[in-house]
Write a structure and sequence with these properties.
3 domains, ATPase_NBD (chains A, B), alpha/beta, ArsR-like_HTH (chains A, B), five-stranded mixed beta sheet, ROK family transcriptional regulator (chains A, B), globular, ROK (chains A, B), Nucleotidyltransferase, domain 5, Arc Repressor Mutant, subunit A, homodimer
């Protein structure tokens, strides 16, 4: 068992072996030879090389199927990946095994506005502590998602509206240097979409949208099973779709963006106005207790039957649903998954989003279109970040 | 030279040879062996088989490069494809060679509302006449585009709003039976996008949108060089994006769709109202001359400096641009091509579309985004239809 990793897949056959074994569990050499259309000798040689690279192990004899006994190929059980998700005000770090099952995780508040040096130092600190607690000397790779547009090839954020100081900062290379392992950087919404695809409700979907409603609003786009990032890497930036030219000012400088109506910050603003304007005794009480209201406060008011909280939720759901209805007409996805902090408002929000989509899009596009909440409870970002880097380690460079 | 075709590519190597030779012209066996990473013996054998299939010919000796002379492989010069584009009120049919250069074309008025039997009989008649005039016994395949959603796998239109009687009609199989050759059916906008990719302004773009503004409005989506059709085959149906819930009734039954504001029919309606309401002497004159106004009449009024025609064009361009701005934020394309009959309004329309997109989308997504008019002068649909079927004939079944 290798507790630090020397390599990554070197041939397409090695890459396919790793991906099959990651997604389906240990497989016999006979089985792999059949799936890959190559000889058992080739599988034995390639699997042997994967053992040397610290990526696979000999998994013992396979259950007999009558003929010659075959040997199982499995992922090295010491293989570890790290997934990091940075949000506007919180960070989550997880250590996973080679199949991207979360072995340990840590969540903590951060302020992304403090800039890359301060925030990445915290992320490194948490990562090192988790790795030490798990007895991992070096992970096979680290994936990280950040709440803004990313130049994926360059590994840097690009003009991120809510991340002052991060524009062009070499996040990928800085982390890779510090941790001595491959790192990949992507947008938070993209890695969340990957997490849903790997282990969430989108497991069997090849064309789907993951919509994050958090402090900001964004969308991960999966086409034919692969993330679609767009010509400049900023595809899915739906929070800045303009829904009313006379609407409130947005963090991006424009007026009337979707996010300015119903991001987490907008919802907190509207809830506070409702509390202070005497329109919701429940929200007023929560404001007095907590000193400030958040999207989560609106969720608590909802569970206490507050009419104003319900009205805010419905209005927001209608706006999100109207934007999504247009995207359904354009993109005709097979599934829409809703996640992010504000999605914690749950089924009142979901019902409104659904009815807007179903009402405004053509029947052909919505006839088989499930619109569902994420079921990963906040892990989609870290699992997806781990998936991002594992795909690279398991692929041919 | 084979004037009727027996086959299609049988191996991935044959498929690659055909595609290279289609897109780059005759290539020597040495050159092909190098590109494909196979031996010259293999290329010779596969090329020989393509000759037997009537797809390729021995193109004579290649220019010497010092070593042994090599033989050129070329497409069979007798290879012919047919591309058909059905619109709401017009049909275009073209016969192309194996490289999809148009050898002969025919345009004629049709009424798609007359239903599949009547319209397909006309299409078959025109096709047979063109083939006879070109001395073609049997084309290698036929591609056809229709103005409505299509089930590509099934080869049938699905609930097409402006094609009464066509829902579920087996267009592909009926034509294939009549012509005795492979046929593929797709949406008109999809085949136009393929035409732009094959020989138009989108030749070097891998992620782009083709927006058709004709009687209806639709959008072809190319992702990674391939058409994206969506989960139900109706991706790109942007004419039915709702832009104002209180807007005019649309052919689809909803209110305020983009198409109800600025499809060709809507523009004719608004132009007629302007003529009858005394707001445009030029349009009134054209109405009197022609008995009815069309999008083309508005174009003629534009060239005569009519202020009302300019106002209608600008207002339409603003509406289309607003919808496209949202799609740019979502999809981050590398290029947008505008085509279709109404695009004949030209640069007054284009300028308005561009300025709406640039004003309402984030700078990152528009910094390198060309928005251009199609330059194929109406041939994009027939070339794209031919491309659709040629891709299938040149590919392994």
């Amino acid at each position: 068992m290798a507790h630090f990793l020397s390599g990554r897949a070197e041939t397409p056959t090695q890459s396919k072996i790793l991906t099959y074994v990651r997604d389906e569990g240990p497989l016999s050499r006979i089985d792999l030879a059949g799936r890959l259309g190559v000889s058992r000798t080739t599988v034995a040689a390639e699997a042997g090389r994967l053992v040397e690279l610290g990526l696979a192990v000999d998994g013992g004899p396979a259950a007999s199927r009558g003929g010659r006994r075959s040997t199982l190929v499995d992922l090295d059980p010491g293989l570890r990946f790290v997934g990091i998700e940075l949000g506007a005000t919180s960070m989550r770090v997880a250590v996973t095994d080679g199949r991207l099952q979360v072995l340990a995780r840590d969540s903590s508040p951060i302020e992304i506005r403090r800039g890359p040096e301060a925030v990445l130092a915290e992320a490194l600190d948490t990562t090192r502590k988790l790795l030490a607690a798990e007895g991992v000397e070096k992970p096979a790779g680290v994936g990280i998602g950040v709440p803004g547009p990313v130049d994926f090839q360059g590994g840097v954020p690009v003009s991120p509206p809510i991340m002052p100081g991060w524009d062009g900062y070499p996040v990928r290379d800085a982390l890779s240097r510090e941790l001595g392992t491959p790192v990949l950087l992507d947008n938070d919404v993209n890695v969340m979409a990957l997490g849903e695809q790997h282990t969430g409700v989108a497991r069997s979907a090849s064309d789907f949208l993951f919509v994050k409603i958090g402090t900001g609003i964004g969308c991960g786009i999966v086409v034919g099973g692969h993330l679609y990032r767009g010509a400049d890497g900023c595809a899915g930036d739906i929070g800045h779709i303009r829904i009313d030219a006379n609407g409130p000012v947005c963090a991006c400088g424009n007026h009337g963006c979707l996010e300015a109506f119903f991001g987490g910050a907008a919802l907190a603003r509207d809830a506070t106005a409702a509390a202070q304007g005497g329109r919701s005794p429940v929200l007023a009480e929560l404001l007095e207790e907590d000193g400030a209201l958040t999207a989560e406060s609106v969720g608590r008011a909802l569970t206490r039957g507050d009419a104003e909280a319900l009205a805010l939720t419905r209005e927001g759901g209608r706006r999100v649903g109207s934007v999504l209805a247009n995207l359904v007409s354009f993109f005709n996805p097979g599934l829409i998954v809703i996640g992010g902090g504000v999605a914690g408002l749950g089924h009142s929000l979901l019902a409104e989003i659904r009815s807007s989509i179903y009402r405004q899009s053509l029947p052909l596009a919505t006839g088989n279109l499930p619109v569902v909440l994420s079921e990963l409870g906040g892990d989609s970002g870290v699992i997806g970040s781990a998936r991002l880097i594992s795909d690279a380690v398991y692929a041919v460079a």
